[in-house]
Amino acid sequence: MSGPIPVEEALRRVLASAEAPLGEERVPLEEAFGRVLARDLVALRTQPPFANSAMDGYAVRAVDAAAPAATLRVVGEAAAGRAFAGRVGAGEAVRIFTGAPAPAGADAIVVQEEVRRDGDRVTLGRPARIGDNLRTEGLDFREGERLLGAGRRLGPRDIALAAAANHAALFVRRCARVAILATGDELVAPGEPLGPSQIVASNNFTVAGIVEACGGVPIDLGIARDSMAALDEAIRAALAAKPDVLVTLGGASVGDHDLVQKALAAAGMELGFWKIAMRPGKPLMHGRLGDLRVLGLPGNPTSSTVCAVLFLRPLMRALHGEPDPGADPTRPARLAVDLKANGPRQDYQRCALSRDADGRLMATPLALQDSSLVKVMAYADGLIVRPPDAAPAKAGDACRVLAFDELGV
Ligand SMILES: Nc1nc2c(c(=O)[nH]1)N[C@H]1C(S)=C(S)[C@@H](COP(=O)(O)OP(=O)(O)OC[C@H]3O[C@@H](n4cnc5c(N)ncnc54)[C@H](O)[C@@H]3O)O[C@H]1N2
Ligand code: MOO
């Protein structure tokens, strides 16, 4: 086996294993939130379909309303959903409400606060100009217009746009199914009785949450013990669940009880790579078991989380057909403290993020960086990314950070 590969190379190989986006399915609009469009969204209608009033007031002909204190005769009414059937003629006005179609002949709306009404007469407080308070047909969008591109993850405003464009259902990508298998004799589920050498499994919750944040469906395969028999059975259960991705947790390193890779190989997995030049997360494993993409995440809680953010998230974005799934997720910031030179592994330091007096993003590494610490991970705002062999850095120097809330993790 060759040595650890660089992070970029590992990401490239993980993304290559997505091959093509998952298939598409048609879902009602009510179920489209968070899904990824599989086809461009094209408007089925023009919005607004007719010129309409932006205000409650009177529809007039600007030519009649040019003189100061012009008085017009009110000949009818137009409300939202109920147009005025006639035409506004010379010296006439139509009472109109917000959203109502502009009557034929009218080319301006005078707001009601600026008129005096007396029976069927209305006297304008000031002259009107053509187009005043009118919304033109197609101001928003036109039938046939491409409104959203395939690959767009749908938020609430996108779904409103689809509704306005008269789509009752949308073609979206099938949600990636991600089976999650925790491994280790020491693990029990929260609330279960704990033996003397045991701890509570937590990584599976991080990964399941990240899967959901990426629009996927987590499939909890529970905890497998550190034996070939238990792992074989768990891998069979994983295959039966027909996931798109299998994530294993723990047992990825070199210890006598780290059997995950061996069990997967026995089940027919073709190993892609094992070990990356990064910290935490060095023993990450990637392979293929038939159609299934396998990501073996290291057991340390920080390591599994960092690997899920850096590799599982882009893999899911690729499976969902989102654009540029491997895009650099970092942004620029400044260091709040000095940092020592980095070693040969790309380093991901848990950090707090804040703004300085000038509003610049500042990154402060948290005091404890041990990869076993769940609390530090929960409290961190993000990660400072330090390239392999980075030189010592001073407070105020530029750095790159990955902000968890921006990535929804
Ligand atoms: N001789 C060496 N030892 C280790 C190396 C190495 O290169 N040589 N690498 C270290 C690094 S780096 C990491 S990371 C860990 C990863 O080891 P494994 O993936 O085999 O993980 P485990 O040994 O199963 O567990 C490590 C640690 O994490 C806890 N754990 C595991 N699963 C969960 C879970 N679902 N929820 C919460 N905590 C979990 C587990 O109890 C262990 O404490 O190996 C180093 N060793
Ligand atoms: O890579 Mo391990 O993930 O350093 O703790």
TrEMBL record:
InterPro entries: MoaB/Mog-like_dom_sf (IPR036425), MoaB/Mog_dom (IPR001453), MoeA-like (IPR038987), MoeA_C_domain_IV (IPR005111), MoeA_C_domain_IV_sf (IPR036688), MoeA_linker/N (IPR005110), MoeA_linker/N_sf (IPR036135). Pathway: Cofactor biosynthesis; molybdopterin biosynthesis. Residues 179-318 form the MoaB/Mog domain. Coiled coil: none annotated. The keyword Metal-binding applies. GO terms for cellular component: cytosol. One of its GO terms (biological process) is Mo-molybdopterin cofactor biosynthetic process. SMART domains: MoCF_biosynth. Its cofactor is Mg(2+). It catalyses: adenylyl-molybdopterin + molybdate = Mo-molybdopterin + AMP + H(+). GO terms for molecular function: metal ion binding; molybdopterin molybdotransferase activity. Its EC number is 2.10.1.1. It holds the Pfam family MoeA_N. Keywords: Magnesium, Metal-binding, Molybdenum, Molybdenum cofactor biosynthesis, Transferase. The keyword Magnesium applies. NCBIfam families: Glp_gephyrin. PANTHER family: GEPHYRIN, MOLYBDOPTERIN BIOSYNTHESIS PROTEIN. Catalyzes the insertion of molybdate into adenylated molybdopterin with the concomitant release of AMP. Belongs to the MoeA family. This is Molybdopterin molybdenumtransferase.
